[in-house]
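Look over this record before class:
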Amino acid sequence: METFFNNLKKFRDLSERSKDTLLPLFTRIEYKKGETLIRCGKPCQSLYIIEQGYCRAFNIQDGLEVNLSFYFEFDTVTHKNSYVFNIPADFAVVACEPMIVHRIDKPDLLEATRQCPELEETGKKNLELIAAKQERQMQLFRILTAKGRYEFLEQHDPALLQRVSISQLASYLGVKRETLSRIRNKRMRSPIL
């Protein structure tokens, strides 16, 4: 868990009192590949911090799974609207490989912020990061071609390209697997500037 607190330093250095208040509220959970963290149609009132492994958020469109996002080590996973407004989630999140996560439930986190107000600032910054990631993805699809989206990931998120299967990646980029294979093959043959 110390690595987790070190990761939080990007938001704010936490006092020992805040760490001592926060730490017991987390539940360590191990997920097998394919197990669900967040269920579509059910409210999500928890935050999940990934220690090991990765997962994907997806929904079903026209009978097909469409990948919306991927989360890796030290990312925070939640359904932001469901968490904030206590409404059913409109996507699911499943483990793509064995995972270890630390879950904290909203009522516990709210109580911790009442006891240690500095945690509220850290929590807000974490939710801002989640929102920024979602906004970045929306921008990718608004302004870039499929090739441009792939090139953007090469530069800004190479771990995603290395760990995610080609079929999952194609779904995420909004292209057919064959199209993504052509893009990748052309990129491998041409020098990267």
